[in-house]
UniProtKB/TrEMBL annotation:
Carbohydrate kinase PfkB domain span: 1-295
UniProt xrefs under Pfam families: PfkB
Gene Ontology molecular functions: kinase activity
Species per Swiss-Prot/TrEMBL record: Natronorubrum halalkaliphilum
UniProt-recorded name of the protein: Sugar kinase
Length: 317
């Protein structure tokens, strides 16, 4: 039995060294990367037991993903497939004005065919939290139904459901996302959403505090967390909104910051923290993640404790 079970695709991320261009690169740095597995790892790092569910091709690349995730201490429960391929993405880093470019290569992947009946429903029902994100139903029509079915299974088993809206414009349009994801809302207890997505995709107006109130009032969520980038986040719970500023950080790699935040928030709520304290730990974990290359929050609970205790000042080594 795990504290948290997550469901989604983990890709292989291929990145040129430093700020080299993809068209010139001779070698790549390779890492496993996926929102749901990133959340599982962050939660595990802060003391929660975590399991990642997925459908993976029975290939060397699929085994590479599973092997790397297991090295982070999370349990993997995968459906091995002889159909479909391993998803990848390419990350080309660059400073201003070029910026960072992400190129997805995730069509016809094994997970796009995943159905709820392929997974052990009892594993989800026995967990304390089931988590997935808006990326998963964006990948195929099959996964839209599967995501809904797994959320319903969790709800039926009394498992708390947590969902990161996680809109990706390279995967689908705001209209498609709104139509699909709002249909999932009745099965969600805890919603995490960026303020920009609440405005762009859902059409809500107002500052983050107002957005949190509107989302919490309009839908039957237990908790709503609205992230606001460099300004931190707000959390709505029991009709009260709590503010959390971001911790000062020197950014090495911003990718995966939101996943680190969400994983830490869930872990601390499982630990028994109230929403303000969980937000504090989530913000500290996100700040630490920004100092770490790759997509995964390779942090320790002691590091996060120190950031929270010291109010964001630099950790002594």
């Amino acid at each position: 039995m795990s504290d948290i079970v997550t469901f989604g695709e983990t890709m292989l991320r291929l990145s040129p060294p430093a700020n080299e261009r993809l068209e010139d690169v001779d070698e790549f740095e390779v890492r496993a990367a996926g929102a749901e597995s990133n959340v599982a790892i962050a939660a595990q790092r802060l003391g929660a037991t975590a399991t990642w569910l997925s459908k993976i091709p029975e290939t060397p690349l699929g085994r590479r993903v599973v092997g790397e995730l297991r090295q982070h201490g999370i349990e993997t429960d995968v459906v091995w497939s002889h159909r479909g391929r391993q998803g990848t993405y390419y990350l080309e880093r660059g400073g201003k004005p070029r910026g960072t470019n992400v190129i997805y290569d995730r069509e016809h992947t094994a997970i796009s065919t995943a159905e709820a009946r392929e997974f052990d429903a009892d594993r989800i029902k026995d967990a304390r939290v089931f988590f997935t994100s808006g990326i998963t139903p964006a990948l195929s029509s099959t996964l839209r139904e599967t995501t809904a079915n797994l959320l319903n299974a969790a709800r039926q088993g009394g498992t708390t459901t947590a969902f990161d809206f996680n809109y990706r414009r390279k995967l689908w349009s705001p209209e498609e996302a709104r139509e699909t994801l709002t249909r999932l809302f009745p099965g969600i207890d805890v919603l995490v959403i960026a303020a920009r997505d609440a405005r762009t995709v859902l059409g809500f107006e107002g500052d983050p505090r107002q957005l949190a109130h509107k989302l919490g009032s309009q839908y039957d969520f237990t908790t709503v967390v609205v992230t606001r980038g460099s300004e931190g986040a707000v959390g709505w719970h029991d009709s009260v909104v709590h503010d959390q500023d971001a911790y000062e950080t020197e950014t090495v790699s911003p990718i995966g910051t939101g996943d680190a935040f969400t994983g830490a928030f869930i872990a601390r709520r499982l630990h028994g923290d109230d929403v303000p304290k969980a937000l504090e730990y989530a913000a500290a974990t996100a700040a630490l993640k920004r100092t770490i290359p790759g997509d995964v929050a390779r942090v320790s609970k002691e590091e996060v404790d120190a950031i929270v205790k010291e109010g964001g000042t630099e950790i002594s080594r």
